[in-house]
Nitroreductase/quinone reductase family protein
Amino acid sequence: MPTSFHQSVIDEFRANEGKVGGPFAGGDLLLLTTTGARSGISRTVPLGYVRHEGALLVVGSNLGGPRHPGWYHNLLARPVVRVEVGTADFEALAVPAEGERREQLFAHAVRVAPGYGDYQARTSRPLPVVVLERAEPEEGEGRPREVRTLADKLLEVHTWLRGQLKQVRAGTEAYFASPGAAAGAAPGLGLQIRQRCLAFCQALEFHHASEDGHLFPGIARHHPHLGGVFDRLAGEHRTVARIQGELAALLVRVTVTEPERFRQELAAMSTELNAHLDYEEEVLLPLLADVPWPPAAPRVT
């Protein structure tokens, strides 16, 4: 739960389109909602932020305390967060910067808000700098420009999943192409790849659980002759879930320390998931093309 002070800031922020008074008056403030790493409960905190080349940066200063703030540990476990800035409200992928990029971004943050330098001087831990990237599906091949039907929505989600998996694979292959990896001296895969893959795995798990629990049974009731189709789709979900479990086990630590095994599981995921999504679209999109999205609100009588 937020402290009473934080809750008062949150309430004022939401009531006044992102404007607050007191110690935050005139500053750049956002609300960050993370999901508890252990509890699974959503938690919102007000944070100062800095803009950099179109991105939003937040710093895990914790007022210069000896430990990282709780919200930072949460986003390491569950990288998809909710961001409120002014009247905007969107999902974002939270990616802590590493190495030279972290140094560059922290230097930029200190130039904009010198207080971060004071906080860093109070503690021996490097203050995390987290980049918040919008998590909405981007325009891409196969994604509908407008989502008007359930078929459009399914295709939008599939396009996002394909895009995220493609980015993770590209980052992984770039790692293996580096001189350090070729010489066997490179460190484990970094946070950029880990966070993106973890977000992909969590979104995929949620998507398949929704299909198994709601979408497939709903369609099957109206098309009982497609029993074999849904048996095949369920079996493919189990295959993908097994690979997803292998990937998740490799993502437990902050740095992926078994890059070659990660690469192999990622290749297996790409093969199985893309074949599954292609088949699912072939058989389901025609059935969902006339179902409005979002669904109409139930009539109150």
